Structure formats: C-alpha cells, structure tokens
Amino acid sequence: MKKVYFLFSLFIILIISTSWGCTPYDSNKVNNELIQGKWLLIDVDRELYDSVKVDYAKELTFLIFKNNECIQYMPDWMDTLKFTFAIDNYKLHLYKDSTPFRTLTINSLSSDSLTLSVKENEWVYKKTEQ
Fold first, then answer.
1. CATH of the domain at 39
2. CA distance 98 to 102
3. Ramachandran region, residue 21 (left: φ > 0; alpha: ψ -120 to 50; beta: rest)
4. What's the number of domains the chain is made of?
5. I need a labelling partner for 5 at 20 to 30 A (CA). Which of 20, 85, 97, 106 fits?
6. How far apart are CA 4 and CA 50, in angstroms?
7. How far is CA 22 from the centre of its chain?
8. How far is CA 59 from the centre of its chain?
9. What is the dihedral sign for C-alpha 60, 77, 72, 105?
10. 104 contact partners, CB below 8 Å, separation of at least 6
11. Domain presence at residue 10
C-alpha cells in the first residue's frame, strides 16, 4: 500500500511540476524579437549570380525591421521599399499595402546573422545595428 501511495504521489508531483514549471517555446515571438534591427546583405546564392560577380561592399542592400515593418533600403540605387511583415513557423511573410507580396523561409536567425531563402535562392545578412 505504501508503494502505491508513493508512486501515486510521485505521479501527481510530476504532472504538477511539468504543467507549471515549463513554458512552451514560442519560436514566432523569439524570431520576431531577434529579427528587429538593421541587416546588411553580405552574400547571395542565386542562379542569376552564378556568372555575375557582385561586390556587396559597394552594392549595399539593407533590411530594416522595426516592430512589424520591414524596409529594404538600397542607398546606391536610391531605392526604398516598405513592407509590413509577420513571422509564422519559420516563414517571413511580407505584405505590401496589406496584400501578400512574398514569403521567405528563415533558414537561420541569431543575434548577428540572418539567412533567408526561396526555393534554391538564398540571401545571407549580418546585423549592423540593433
């Protein structure tokens, strides 16, 4: 009887500690926080660029994420594109005037690096500002 009581008590303690002790990992929230800031494009892996060499130190392209807005800024071309964005299940959804524009896969995201892709095309960024 003592053994049954002990196992039952252990089971109850395990259930309670699991339900109160753990908070589920919310990757969407974490990725939304990590992506905030200014990112510089440092490398592109695209079929188009296989035969064309691009100097990314000269052809600057920035992505600037602030709250739910994303700005693609290309100072050398004097071009700025503004989007709103949402992150869901490692996908970056861009919207232009509330209309879906493009969805990119977030291959990797850390405090200082970001890799986005669409099919076989991949863009690598490094963080320049928070």
1. 2.40.128.280
2. 12
3. alpha
4. 1
5. 20
6. 69
7. 24
8. 23
9. negative
10. 91, 92, 94, 116, 117, 118, 123
11. no
Q: Show the domain range for 82.
A: 27-129
Evaluate whether residue 16 is within a structural domain. no
Q: What is the model's pLDDT at position 47?
A: 61
CA distance 58 to 129: 19
Give domain status of residue 55, yes or no: yes
Residues 42-101: tens digit of each pLDDT: 998 866 545 556 565 567 899 999 999 999 999 888 889 999 999 999 999 999 999 999
Tokens representing 38 are 């200014």
Confidence band for 8, pLDDT divided at 50, 70 and 90: low
Q: Does residue 62 belong to any structural domain of this protein?
A: yes
Task: State both tokens at 120.
Answer: 């076989």
How many angstroms separate the CA atoms of 103 and 130, rounded? 23
Name the residue with tokens 């053994």.
3
